[in-house]
Amino acid sequence: MTTTTSTQWQLAARPVGEPTADDVRRVEVELPELADGEVRVQNAFLSVDPYMRGRMNDVKSYVPPFALDETMTGGAVGEVVESRSDDLPVGTVVLHDLGWRDVAQGPAAGFRAVQPTEGVSLSAYLGVLGLTGLTAYVGLTEIAHIRESDVVFVSGAAGAVGTMVGQIARLKGASRVVGSAGSDEKVALLTSKYGFDAAFNYKTGDVAELLAEAAPEGIDVYFDNVGGDHLSAALGAFKDGGRAALCGSIANYNATGAPVGITNMTNMVTRGLTMQGFTLGNYRHVAPAFQAEMGPWLADGQVVHDETVVDGIDSAFDAFTGLMRGENVGKMVVRVG
Fold first, then answer.
1. Rounded to an integer, what distance in angstroms lies between the CA atom of residue 142 and that of residue 277?
2. What CATH class does 5-124+306-335 carry?
């Protein structure tokens, strides 16, 4: 079915603190006729991710900020419903970055065809088989250089990236995998489903003390999705030669006051620690190695994944704010419907 109207979400104002409904607007956009080489795609699933909060600020970063009064972008997967490109005929399933809308349109070069896997939802290409899984893989292998017998600590472990980090760490030979999460239910899920050896609810006590209980002999690798007190705790728990992969700092994304200072930094010197941040743009070359390993892991059931699915394009902003409040388990996606 050909659709000529697209429901889209635009950034109306720069948020101060937690984004509110006043910072965005839902609009109806009439799409023009396709030009040569273009395709029209009915999105099936949209991705909402923590990095999008940073793009709402007008600051220099690794990706440009969202422009005011323009439709936001993000990962999406859908099906070509109209095409003027021989490369992407009608019916092709594609990945692309024109999220935050139900119907996307543009040059075929901006869309990448994927082969659906029987029994696997298309949303997996936004998570375990996509950038989420690749982020976990890159952080462990290229940044933290995980080794057999490492003790690995993951903050925000019940999120989309965190759940993948824990499982990949185990498959790469970690001797102990520890995670933090924001509820007792998530903690239970980490140890019962995702194979974590220990996990703790960071809201129930001092993070450094909770980490010391979960990893009494210290840690070798820290995968940081949170920052703040979690990073300070990890710096205090590292063994000599410890390595930290800094992926996110969700504790600070909505902060309006001065940033929380990081403690235990002297251990960087005295214990010979390495701490490195990363974004995927510099590691796209790792994707083939990731796909070669993740595909069989997923097929064999060695890797499992959860999704939190929110229905309807009208609910996209609620899904995003829910993600920022930690209401998801695993990958948060919007099923366009």
1. 11
2. alpha beta
Which of these, 82, 24, 81, lies nearest to 48 by C-alpha position?
24
pLDDT at 251: 52
Element containing residue 246 per DSSP (H, E): strand 238-246
Q: Would you give the DSSP letter of residue 159?
A: B
Q: Please tell me whether residue 48 adopts helix, strand or coil conformation.
A: coil
| Intervals of CATH 3.40.50.720 along the chain | 131-281
Alpha helices, H only, 194-247: 207-214, 228-237
- Residue range(s) in the chain whose domain bears CATH number 3.90.180.10: 5-124+306-335
* Cα 15 versus chain centre, distance: 21
- Burial string for 286-298 (b: 16+ CB within 10 Å, else e) reads ebeebeebbeebb
Hey, what amino acid is at 114? V
Three-class DSSP category at 145: coil
Structure tokens at 139: 């952080």
- What are the pLDDT digits (tens) for 80-112? 999 999 999 999 999 999 999 999 999 999 999
Mapped onto helix, strand or coil, the DSSP state of residue 127 is: coil
- Strand, coil or helix: 65: coil
Strand partners, 177: 152
pLDDT tens for residues 150-183?
A: 999 999 999 889 999 999 999 999 999 999 999 9
Residues 337, 183: Cα–Cα separation, whole Å: 30
Which residues is 307 bridged to in the sheet? 331
- Say which CATH topology domain 131-281 has: Rossmann fold (3.40.50)
- What interhelical angle do 207-214 and 228-237 show, nearest 10? 40
Check pLDDT > 70 for residue 254.
no
Res 288 pLDDT > 70: yes
